[in-house]
Amino acid sequence: IFSQVELAPADPILGLTDAFKADVREHKVNLGVGIYKDESGQTPILKSVKFAEEKLLATEKSKSYLGMEGVEAYNRAVQTLLFGAEHEVVSQSRALTAQAPGGTGSLRVAAEFLVRHTDSKKIWISNPTWANHNNIFSTAGLDIAEYGYYQAETHSLDFDAMLADLQSAQAGDLVLLHGCCHNPTGIDLNIAQWQQIADLCLANGLVPLFDFAYQGFGAGVEEDAQGLRIVANTVPELIVANSFSKNFGLYNERIGAVTVVGSNSEQTVNAFSQIKSTIRASYSNPPAHGALIVSTILEDAALKQLWHDELQEMRERIAEMRTLFVASLKSAGVSQDFEFISRQNGMFSFSGLNKDQVNRLKEEFAVYIVGSGRISVAGMTKTNMPVICAAIAKVL
Ligand code: LMR
């Protein structure tokens, strides 16, 4: 049977990591996948995570199965991070959360549930968006439509196009929204724009599906949740897929969650029961370690403060690299204006480099960035910056 199987195309992001690993050039730099590096070029384990793991090692009593929805304390902590401590979707029992494997696993569980148990068969995604969105949603069986988001000439948000495209969505259609630090553009909605999108969803019966993978990498943990909270204050139903890969540095623990918010507690319970049956048919129940790390940190005031401090340090280092990147391009002799990069949020800068230039960066200079021109600023250091900027200056 395998004689009929064709070779799969390389993944636009993870395939780059494979190519990078195979590259023997010593000065190579991987700015493809979104992974935080510290100033020494390492992806550190946070101190708060290490302390939590020590505590778990000393106190954990059993490796028995979790329920399909995962660790209860973790799921409660997720809701507090997403909505804040007192939000009405929590106090009115309209939100239920299931731990799931990372952002991708959470989105996939949500999509499988929607396809099988609701009439929502179409999802609107931004153009551009994370390269895996299309893959996840189409594999689950959703139809995909795109809304405008980015104006290439001005390197800014095309909010008019976003509104106009979403006006043509039908009641029951899903709208994928990036909670903060839009991937790949780094351009987010402001408060007034979030409210306009929330109002549009309410008026036309559209259902928001949040991908919230970078909470704390924009302006701060609370600040970055403002868009989500505005939408949750406005619409009756939504779904959130969140991830702790980046903000807890728990990439390989695959720890995220899917949260359903219904218009009343009974409907939420019904929807959640089908989320659980989707999980049962997929991986039965989640692994415990990542969730226990997160809940141990968030339930301990001192560990929680340490995590906030470490997250702030990561956020500030990325911001520093962003400014240095713009300045270093100038010093490398680039006359083109790259100032827009300093206005983008999160791990990525959407550079405007074209496919040819991206390819030359890889082939001639061993600098790996995503084909869309997305560069992981979080992978830049003071040491590799001159190499990166000299290479970009050559391909421009
Ligand atoms: C990215 O966009 O680089 C990350 O979210 C990692 C991934 O899985 O693609």
From TrEMBL:
Cofactor: pyridoxal 5'-phosphate
Enzyme class: transferase
Keywords: Aminotransferase, Pyridoxal phosphate, Transferase
Pfam families xrefs: Aminotran_1_2
Gene3D superfamilies: Aspartate Aminotransferase, domain 1, Type I PLP-dependent aspartate aminotransferase-like (Major domain)
PROSITE patterns reported for this sequence: AA_TRANSFER_CLASS_1
EC number: 2.6.1.-
The Aminotransferase class I/classII large domain, residue ranges: 27-392
CDD domains hit by this protein: AAT_like
GO molecular function term, any single one: transaminase activity
Protein family: Belongs to the class-I pyridoxal-phosphate-dependent aminotransferase family.
Subunit composition and interactions: Homodimer.
Official protein name in the record: Aminotransferase
